[in-house]
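Hi everyone,

Forwarding the result from last night's run.
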Amino acid sequence: MFDKIRDWIVRGLDKMFSKSTIEEALKVPVAISKEMDNAMELWLKIYTNNSPWLNKDVKSLELASSIAGEFARLTTLEMKTEITGSKRSDYLQEQYKKALKDLKSNLELGNAVGGMIFKPYVKNKDICIDIISQTYFKPLKFDNAGNIISAVFTSQIQKGKTIYTRLETHTLNNNVYTVENKVYKNDNYISSMLGKLVSLTDVEEWSDLSESVTIKGIEKPLFAYYKVPIANNIDTKCSLGISVFNRAINTIEDTETMNARLDYEYDSAERKLYVDSTAIKVDKDGKQVGKLPRIIQKIDLTNKENNFYEEFSPGIRDEAFLRGINKKLQQIEFQVGLAYGTISDPNNVDKTATEIKTSKQRSYSTVSQMQNNLQETLEHLVYILNVYTDLYELASSGEYETSFEWDDSIIVDSEYEQKIRQNEVNQKLRSKKSYLMWRYGLKEKQAEEMLKEVKSETEETEMFKEE
């Protein structure tokens, strides 16, 4: 029976289907509102530099992708995770690496659109992992805790001008897992419609699949969802995540529009030399000879006494624009939860030491929540890998353990971290040697020598007191 699940999950073409299209096809409600559906489409447009406010004058500053990318970088910075414990864990670790290989770039897109899903599948005795951004699946049902327990995924195959779309529905109900398949044919490959319902056997690549497969004894969905840990103010009843830059969309628009005005300031203030037409060389037919340099503009100055040229070199008001843009960038940093100076000019952060520390702590708090969510998602992914390993008997049985280590050295305040480690030494949870190695970047022998010197000086001081 499980052979029927093979190769079901294939990465789909980058085509979004609306909430209404999916509902009409499956005859079941999609568990998101129209407002949420529209918001996800907008986030994707902004991330891919297709914002509705962009035109020939207003250009993208790549702010959305920079924000999503910076959060992905900070979240995965020096992240270490592995599966250990047995021969089973060795096999799982090899499969697990596939999800970690391009994790940062996938996480960036997930941050931009509110979330992403890891969806493993088995192909030729090997587990593959498809990573799907939130814009390319539709949740059908959530449990009481807000976890997705039913969702529909799309995959497509194009043959000539005909496109086949497969809707793959996953549902978990009382430890019974059901996967259903439906295929649609549309002879107009550029259309956003599904087309007419056809048999699985009409598509050679999917001809050996079953319309429905049921698996018992499943505790979690066979897909793992990562959610951006920001409250959903688009639809407060929806459990999906929202974009990391959602709260700053209006400010991003203002910033890019303001930057267009700065560009115009530079263009309009370009130095020019207006030269009388009589000073321009012409041929016998009165046509201009050669091309004038960019700086020279031809003009009729015959009415001006003793002048055959005028110079145009106005001042540039760029400082005011640059200050305004930087203020907007700092506003964006505050709205999305980044420290001041991350995308704004770090030299213009006019703050007290306490305010700077608070700013860094805001960034640390945001990233810590993302790391917690990502860890839960990856632990769920490992569960799915283990389930498929059992179903297809891909490796011998055995225990496994998943470990995580998050390097916070750049985003954690150093003074705060030092106090924590000193406290651990006082409570004998950490050795003095390990603290010195961390604090001063010493090697083990160097730390031992320092401890000996401290001990020697302490003993001499005690002897002096006794005398």
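Confidence is low (pLDDT under 50) at residues 1-14.

Cheers,
N.
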